[in-house]
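Before the break, one more example. Copy the sequence into your notebook; we will annotate it together after we see the structure.
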Amino acid sequence: MNTQDALTVTSVTKSFGGVHAIADVSFNVRAGSLTALIGPNGAGKSTMFNLFTNLYIADSGTIAYFGQDLAGMRSDKIARLGLIRTFQTARVFAGMTVLENVLAGAHIGVSANVWEEALRLPRASSEERTVREKAAHLIDVLGLSSVAEESAISLPLGLQKLLEIARALMAGPKVLLLDEPAAGLNDTETLRLAELLVAINAAGVTMVVVEHNMSLVMSISQDIVVLDAGRVIARGTPAAVQADERVIEAYVGRATDTVAS
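Here is what the structure looks like once it is written out:
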């Protein structure tokens, strides 16, 4: 096993009602890379994310995180190891402001105990200041400062997706899994997102991005893994994947079928 791999997927299979959502899939994510996981609708991309975090349990095969087998590990423990994800549909905490949602992302990294916090002891106070400063910085970087005190649930979908990214970053991820981060964003917001993702990766965070916006994928990715019908059909650089006939067939063929129907 390559110790430089952040994630190693080996012969993983997952079925639902006898239908293979993931069928004997193997690939790796290099530590420090920005890897895209792409494919037509129903290819198994979000299922793969759920397998990474044990929201789904694989029927067979293994998934390793920096060489550590994740089998049987609780999702919260996986998060504490630094494997953090967002979801295809934005999940914000209703009844909380944008700032409060972002602050919630820091809970797995807080070291002060409940008594230190209740008694406002120095370590707890110092930690709270640091956390709030980090939250304010992330809110500013993501362009959410003007809505920081607004109810998170009232935000448009695109801004909720950005809020999810800010909350995920508060957890201090080593590996960040982003499920369709550009959904609901306009062209200007998507360009800003691209710059942000490249900057996060350059700061040392390994990233895996599921995304349908191919312009975004091709502009930011170093490696691309292509799924179709639960199987890996291609793997390589953006240039290599774009030229792969199996990938072209998967996308163009699927589009032709949709038009024909």
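The domain at 5-260 is CATH 3.40.50.300 (Rossmann fold). Residues 109-119, 255-261 have pLDDT under 50 and may be disordered. Try to locate both features in your own notes.
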